[in-house]
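User: For a benchmark we're assembling, each entry needs the component sequences followed by a predicted structure for the full assembly. Here are entry 17's components. Please fill in the structure.
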Amino acid sequence: MRDLGRPAVLLALAALSCGGSKGPTPDFFVRGAGVIVQSTAPFTQRPDLPARIESTVDAALAYWGGSWRILEGRTITLEGDQHVACAGATDAIGCYDGDIRVSTRDVSFAFYCVEETVLVHEVGHAVIGDPEHTDPRWMDFSSLTQELEGRTGYAEDGEVPCQIWTSVWRHPPLR
Ligand SMILES: [Zn+2]
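Assistant: Structure for entry 17:
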């Protein structure tokens, strides 16, 4: 999945056409959703990762008005590269095509916690679709920020604050 070009595109299409039943075996499951860790970001190696994903997705589902049933049998992949494979996009930091993929790093640093990734954004696509980002909730997220802020993050050398930048989650409507 790390190669650019055709192999990544073929993998993305394969995931689309078979609803995510192919691909790497999940490292663990959270409420029926398979989680695949393809990253060495410190937070992905911590024992609290499953609980952090569960509580983050739980809060995101409440924000978007969805339930865990939507993610049952789907996968959530944490990607170490800055960009994730996504049909029709070369610079995606997150993708929902039946399964969710999110990057675990920004341009210059790895995120300190799963809450900092675009996971809550991609859960939004899983719940409401809306690829054009016309729903006003894509520009809000304030209730979700309140719920998820103040947690522990992880750097190479230990614990740091998990710092949420709502701008990472937001997406202005396409003009
Ligand atoms: Zn989006």
